[in-house]
Design goal:
Elements (H helix, E strand, L loop, with lengths): L3 E7 L6 H11 L7 E7 L6 H7 L6 E5 L6 H11 L4 E4 L11 H8 L4 E5 L6 E2 L4 H18 L9 E4 L15 H8 L5 E5 L1 E2 L11 H19 L3
Parallel strand pairs: 1-2, 1-4, 2-3, 5-8, 6-9
Antiparallel strand pairs: 4-7, 5-7
């Protein structure tokens, strides 16, 4: 049975899937034999799901094909539900999350409930972001830090023990599922590791006004959730 399950939600990432898998398994080291990758594809028009299916002969990959664009958060939850590992990871499919730090992440998981690859701690960085994209991200982080007390609560690159979310009713469909896990999950110890968020090669950001609206609703909802805790 796999020890580690890595969930990768995809939408129009056909050109990125193979190089990403090659990088992941290059850096995993001895954990490779106990790892599965679950690609959750939202019926990508560019055929990402079909490309991923063909990679099963080369990598320990399972593909979940969904009917349409149902949201990144729900894709991650579908991946969690299908995962066999006791350690769960989430990475983007667009090559922005550098697998170079995977050995450090897995080492840190030995002593922590959640390990976050962080853009906004010392030595973390973002490659060539437009000023408005950087400003929007930093505002979002500022709004959520008080509820989570971590440097990058909106990271999409994180790993955790299954016990953190077992029995927790995760519900977000938006991009910020880590935010929900930090608010609701059983995470006594959280470790952040710096990394460089890379520029996307063949795809572009899927954030839109709808996702920003969902994010603002999340903040209000989780403030109410926290206020009701004993």
């Amino acid at each position: 049975m796999p020890k580690l399950s890595i969930i990768i939600p995809t939408y129009n990432e056909a050109e990125n899937v193979e190089p990403l898998l090659a990088e992941i398994f290059k850096f995993l080291g001895p954990v490779v034999a106990e790892t599965e990758v679950i690609i959750v594809d939202d019926n990508s028009p560019d055929g990402t799901g079909e490309v991923a299916e063909k990679l099963k002969n080369s990598y320990p990959v399972r593909v979940i094909h969904r009917s349409g664009k149902l949201g990144l958060g729900s894709a991650v939850r579908a991946g969690f539900a299908a995962a066999k590992g006791e350690l769960l990871g989430v990475m983007d499919g667009d090559l922005s999350h550098d697998p170079l730090i995977l050995p450090d992440i897995l080492k840190a998981l030995e002593q922590n409930d959640i390990v976050i690859a962080s853009r906004f701690v010392e030595k973390g960085a973002v490659e060539r972001w437009a000023w408005w994209r950087k400003a929007t991200s930093k505002i979002g982080v500022w709004l959520t830090r008080r509820l989570t007390r971590v440097g990058d609560p909106l990271s999409g690159y994180f790993f955790l023990h299954r016990r953190v979310i077992d029995g927790i009713p995760l519900a977000t469909n938006g991009y910020k599922i880590l935010f929900e896990i930090l608010v609701k999950g059983r995470c006594a110890t959280v470790k952040e590791l710096p990394y460089r968020f890379r520029m996307r090669r063949y795809s572009h950001s899927k954030l839109d006004l709808k996702e920003y609206w969902l994010f603002l609703k999340q903040i209000l909802e989780y403030r109410r959730y926290r206020s009701k805790l004993p």
